[in-house]
């Protein structure tokens, strides 16, 4: 059964009337959370991969919050997959449609009976070319954050290199088009280690890790903890347990290379 944990960073608000004990504990909790995240992310690069302008903006925001403060910066990398890449034109158009469906912008092809077998073949071909599209910088142990549907074709290639693969998604949109897009994408995302949902409140993040059946929620007091603590804490959780499985009550390691 899936289980959920919630971490509030810090646990107290520190507002008027807050005791000095609570404020001191806030500082200790935040310092400990940052230390744990730094230990988990040390020696790794967090790669932000995006294609569409909104996804590139989200990737830039993530890189910025992981890069500050300077004395606690995490190594970050950028990889753009878009019109100037080798991605097939038809694949880029399909990925843009999927992003619009997920965001509730496009009604999608529900009326014509759903996404076609040809469209599935186009996306599958893109996934097969993922290694060529990924670039040479990603190493074993790195973290690859995929910000949109075109970036998601790189999931299996990144996982095959031993990277931790995260799919960053916006707050879910309900409706038949979004449901159809997710059903389509899930068939190609078996290599994704975790889904991180940021928003709609910027101080609340959730990491859903399928393998250990764990949803880790992070609630960060706005302005109280410094930039990027929520993301750092989420990434540390994913690195620590994304490849654990609970089978028959025993903890088993999940293979590094995705199963085809």
Automatic annotation (TrEMBL):
This protein's name: Uncharacterized protein
- Species per Swiss-Prot/TrEMBL record: Conexibacter woesei (strain DSM 14684 / CCUG 47730 / CIP 108061 / JCM 11494 / NBRC 100937 / ID131577)
């Amino acid at each position: 059964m899936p289980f959920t944990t919630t971490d509030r960073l810090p646990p107290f608000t520190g507002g008027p009337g807050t005791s000095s004990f609570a404020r001191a504990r806030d500082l200790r909790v935040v310092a400990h959370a940052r230390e744990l995240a730094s230990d988990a992310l040390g020696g790794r690069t967090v790669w932000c991969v995006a294609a569409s302008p909104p996804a590139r903006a989200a990737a830039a925001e993530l890189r910025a919050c992981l890069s500050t403060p300077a004395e606690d910066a995490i190594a970050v990398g950028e990889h753009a997959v878009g019109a100037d890449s080798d991605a097939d034109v038809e694949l880029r158009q399909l990925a843009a449609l999927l992003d619009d469906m997920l965001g509730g912008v496009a009604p999608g092809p529900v009326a014509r009976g759903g996404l076609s077998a040809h469209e599935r073949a186009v996306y599958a071909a893109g996934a097969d070319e993922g290694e060529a599209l990924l670039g040479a910088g990603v190493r074993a142990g790195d973290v690859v954050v995929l910000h949109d549907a075109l970036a998601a074709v790189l999931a299996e290639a990144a996982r095959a290199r031993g990277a931790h693969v995260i799919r960053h998604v916006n707050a879910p949109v309900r409706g038949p088009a979004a449901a159809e897009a997710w059903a389509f994408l899930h068939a190609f995302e078996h290599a994704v280690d975790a889904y991180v949902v940021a928003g709609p409140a910027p101080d609340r993040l959730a990491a859903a890790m399928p393998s250990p059946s764990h949803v880790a929620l992070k609630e960060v007091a706005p302005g109280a903890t410094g930039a990027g603590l929520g993301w750092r804490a989420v990434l540390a959780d994913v690195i620590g347990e994304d490849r654990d499985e609970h089978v028959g009550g025993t903890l088993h390691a999940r293979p590094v290379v995705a199963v085809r």
